[in-house]
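Researcher: Next entry in the queue.
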Amino acid sequence: MELSGQTQDIKSARELGLVACTRCTKVWPAGTEFCGRCGKPLQSRDTGSLQRVWAFWIVGFLCYIPANMYPMLQTRTLLTVQEDTIVGGAIELFHYGSPGIALIILIASVAIPVAKFLAIAFLAISVRRVSSISMHQRQLLYEVVEYIGRWSMIDIFVVAIMSSLVQLNTLAAINPGRASLFFALSVIFTMLSAQAFDSRMIWDVQSREADALDDHTGADTTDRTA
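Model: Structure for this entry, 226 residues:
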């Protein structure tokens, strides 16, 4: 309906006197305290959602800064010790003829985390202000952010595998650097931030957006009449 240029008045579960369980998605009449299927407490809206979203978001962002400054991987041989950051390691892989792996690491460890930070911040702000992005698109963005969260640990998986495989006593050894801890914490807190977001609030702005559109249309009519 929206793509064809027509608008459709979508009623929320709250307006219909219903509340859905966020764990098993079972729908119950409003006022039900606990889900009869899984036992989770039911809330029409999580009033403390945005506070937790921003708290986890800030901690995750603060952890992401040292994750890119400190070395992610430490390679020790008999004569030398080499430390590489996330970007530095990707550059080294590209230099030694592995552009595909370097690109995957850059996307998974740099592009996706930054995109997740921006997307979560946008969603948290958009439920308080009228946005030009439709509610369907914002809901889709939230689902994408939740889905790709688990794939952000690829850098940690690579470090863990290499550390376990390359241990040649005094000849050569690969160990995780300090950045691996901060990166893992950043991913975890970003996932918690996304999970803390109550996506039902996206649909609550429908009435505010409709009121804003009516006010704008009314102002234009008044100007033309004048």
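Model: The helical segments are 49-69, 86-95, 99-126, 135-148, 154-165, 178-196, 201-225.
Researcher: Noted, moving on.
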